[in-house]
Amino acid sequence: MRHASLSLLFVLACAPGAVDAPAVTPASAEDAAYARLFAADGEATQKGVEELRTMRVRVDDLVGGLHTRVQQYAGGVPVFGAEAIVHVDPAGSVVGVTDDLLGGVQVDSSPTVAVDDAVERAVADVGGWTTLSDEPTTELWILRQDGRDHLVWRVQLHQRHVGESDALPVVFVDAHTAETVWQYDNLQSVCSGTTNYYGTVSVDCYAYGGANYLEDTVDLLGTYSWNGTTTTLSYVSSATTTFGSTQRTINAVEAAYVAQLVNDYYDTVHGRNGIDGAGGPAAVTSHGYNFITSTTSYSSSYVGASWDPTGLYMLYGDGDGVYASSLTTLDIGGHEMTHGVTQYESNLTYSGESGGLNEAMSDIFGAMVERSVLGESTDTWLVGEEAWTPGTSGDALRYMNDPQVDGVSYDYYTSSIASVDVHYSSGVANLAFYLLSEGGTHPHGTSTTSVTAIGADDAADIWYLANTSYMTSSTNFSAARTATLAAAAALYGSSSTQYTSVGNSWTAVGVTGTTATCTTSTASGSITKKGQSKYHPNSSGSAVTVTAQTASLTGPSSADFDLYLEKSSGRSWSSVGSSVTASTSTESLSYSGTAGTYRVRVYSRTGSGSYSVSWCK
After folding, report:
1. Element (H, E) at 577
2. Does domain 115-185 have CATH number 3.30.565.10?
3. Alpha-carbon distance 546 to 559, whole Å?
4. In 3D, which of 70, 77, 76, 78 has the Cα closest to residue 100?
5. Residues 357-372 pLDDT 10s
């Protein structure tokens, strides 16, 4: 967001976690934990527990020390809810144990009920397969319920966006009798609080030591406050499940709410787990968990929000009440977290044309997050409209549908745009995305190209795939056109309306890209046995000068053939594109890259027979 660059240099020197690194190591903390638990008077010894396995050892960034979390097992099967956490101070001394181990566990640990039968029982319990939004997942556990130990299949079900309310039912089915032992809803929204812009909301929180913290221990999202400082992060907590109404608490609750919704958008729409795609990154470790981190109330009357690419956390200011109120809105939060996504994917350099694309990527997915929660409206295409200049109604920080409205943003490509501030050059790509989604022509008639609308859902899928698979750190506007075209071809085909509209959306804002187009050639061949490869035009490949290529394969229905596009590095070949759909010989791929020597490889995973291959290069 605007002004973020001024604060970022300072914030990098003031990253959270001021506690000195402990002298004790994770290995020595783990050793101390087991020594304590299995001592003569230790918790495991006293309860007759024979097997514990380490789940994790975490350094506590906020209070120091380490936490070793262990899971109880019996007969090689984990015991549900039977855990212990041993807390070690920075000097290596055990200062406490959270003990939830179970004594006297007795059960046959060999299941006699098949997992598929358990799933069928669980699905029937919640209303049938038509109520599910995803495939069930299963695990074998020992569960103590009503005074008895049961060997159970734990079946996690997903019911999101299929009814009036979402649910994540967990059903425990006895692995010996096929009876349902217990079930609960794993959708965690246990605390509430007021926000600046969205009323009273539910947020996931973590209860510990008589207090509730703004920490989601399932999706691993934590929110903390600078409390008006620039040096020290603090917990945001409440003695009840309703958070207070001080302005700083409201801002923190809102940031936690926004982080959960951004995370949910990326998970639900794009199948992404966290900012880095692997459930992280974690900037703060607290209560034994690593959290993707949001921080609020930075400095005093601070007008700005940012993603810290070194500290790996979001930072939000409270605003000054004149230029902005609290910058904890859905689109701003989506914007900042998308900077993190981009860092772990294309890593677009934050300068010149790639920097403008980086900002646009964040504006685009900030808008998509807001749209996913509030529905599409004219406000979808305004950036930061809820927080910006609270005394002026209807304005915004930026306008994706008409970038010129802010007086500084560009809406048409020029050869000098690399020298423009990245927040203002982003207008070119923002407008291209808006036209791709909504259709129409340039708002000021700078070009006459008409774009057919494909809808924001398809447009977002194309831009997300381009960011994750077709853009590099040095991608400029012309290369972004190529990348999004390649993504559209991969998702919808090169003859689709989506592909045509992507090209027209860039043309409408003056980005014409390369004039070179690929030329299609076809060939046929035959594979005689499993594991055999055939190359086209031959094993030596051929020179390719265009940046976008496509290839398709049609083979025998009785075989499973795969298709690869390979590029020569001089001494060896590397695969740069593939299509490996299971149990079929019909494949297609798209690739956007540099000129070089390429070849197409057809490979038999199973079977034999004749095939034809088409290559546009």
Report:
1. strand 573-579
2. no
3. 32
4. 70
5. 999 999 999 999 999 9
- Taking CA atoms, 117 is separated from 112, 126, 154, 231, 550, in Å, by 10, 15, 12, 56, 44
Confidence of residue 166 (pLDDT cuts 50, 70, 90): low
Residue 13 has pLDDT above 80, yes or no: no
The number of helices, as runs of H, and strands, as runs of E, in the chain is 11, 30
Instruction: Tell me how far CA of residue 357 lies from CA of 315, 341, 432, 484, in angstroms.
Output: 21, 13, 11, 12
Cα–Cα distance, 496 to 502 (Å, whole number): 10
Amino acid at 255: A
CATH number at 26-99: 3.10.450
CA nearest to 408, candidates 380, 391, 383, 432: 383
Q: Which of 67, 87, 423, 536 is catalytic?
A: 423
Q: Which of 30, 215, 254, 336 is catalytic?
A: 336
CATH 1.10.390.10 assigned to domain 329-513? The reply is yes
CB atoms within 10 A of CB 466: 27
Residue entry with tokens 């290839």: 551
Termini Cα distance of the chain = 40
pLDDT one-digit tens code per residue, 194-220: 999 999 999 999 877 778 999 998 899
Residue range(s) of every CATH 2.60.120.380 domain in the chain? 520-616
Which residues, in sequence order, are CB contacts of 570 under 8 Å at separation 6+?
none
Distance in angstroms (rounded) separating the CA atoms of residues 433 and 602:
36
Catalytic residue list contains 336: yes
191-328 domain in CATH 3.10.170.10?
A: yes
Sort strands 289-296 and 221-225 into parallel, antiparallel or unpaired.
Answer: parallel
Q: Domain 520-616 class?
A: mainly beta
